[in-house]
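Before the break, one more example. Copy the sequence into your notebook; we will annotate it together after we see the structure.
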Amino acid sequence: MTRRFGKPRAGVLVGTLLLFLLVLSIPQMANAKITLKDKVGDKEIKVKIYGFSQFEMRGGDGQSAEGGLFFHAQRIRVGFNYFHGPIAGKLFLDFNQSHTKDEGGLPKMIKDAFVAYKFSNSAFIRLGMIKTPLGMSFTNPGWNLDIVERNKLDKGLVFERDFGLMLSGRLIGQPEDKKMKCNGLEMGHERHGYGFGYDLGIFNPAGRSAAVTWDKSLLGDALAYVGRLHYDYGRPLHIELSYGVSEQAGGPNTEDYSVWDVGVMTGHPKWEAALEYISGHNIKGVKDMDQDTLSLMGGYMVGRNVEIVVKHYQASADNPVSGSSDLGNTYIGVNWFLSPLRYKARDFQRHKIVLNYIIASGDTDSWTGKWGYLDDGWVLQWQYKF
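Here is what the structure looks like once it is written out:
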């Protein structure tokens, strides 16, 4: 592996650090929240409008062929949540995605579009385009990540979003003194709850997954199935286990792709830690094309607004043609939280500036798997959310 880090790149990195320090002097931003309400008789109708964007500077040999500075937008999203008694619905759009490329049944610009009916905390049903319940990091909201992105060493193995039907439950067996309610839109570990939860879903073939080939000719002949169990005890503990199968993952008459995932997360007002392992079998429908990834994350608050984070991904690939190899990607980062609503973990994440340096290790010159950084790089990201 050759690492180039000459004077031009050193200058860019120094300039980025100076910009990061300059931003610290900007006045704190106010938070906005938009909720529309109406009432017909004794029935209340409520619509919540929200969104977030992530704007970036990137550089390093792992980011581009030349290794120089470039600008990038990762997510530009707007969402609408609707509530009327037991009925709920969600529409979530990303203006940085294609509105013509159809994968999974809808254009990629449509991230979520589904309707829900809530019978109780322990049973609500949803139909439409939704996050499949597989992958602890993946089912966390994109604005609530511990680093600048979901590395595809693990995100590439999940089913992503898909069009289908899902039955879910949350907060089952929660303590009497911790009574909470869910709204029927929950897709993952959005908040620190208590008790058991589950998701069972049947979907179109997982065409938005990087591990599955989208082929419309399979509609009516192949499906994807996913299940997840999890347990929460507030912020100190979240644990989940999930498994899924997408049939004929490379097109007609190819192998089924299967994947399982286990994740554990724990936290404290001053620190947080997470471990996740995901393993995929028959990627793209190729027999014995396998890959697995272990990720470890630790974060520690320095003062009230700054967090130091280290996250490491360790991946192994078994390729029936080119053999086995290993790849590591390590993120060393700083999260600076602007204008927190409250000094609680999830409220920090709305407005933040994130600086990550990414180190590639292992078989960077002979990686036989898919995705991941093969050389070092860096990202400076500014996120806002309303």
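The longest strand covers residues 43-59. Residues 35-385 form a domain with the Porin fold (CATH 2.40.160.10). Try to locate both features in your own notes.
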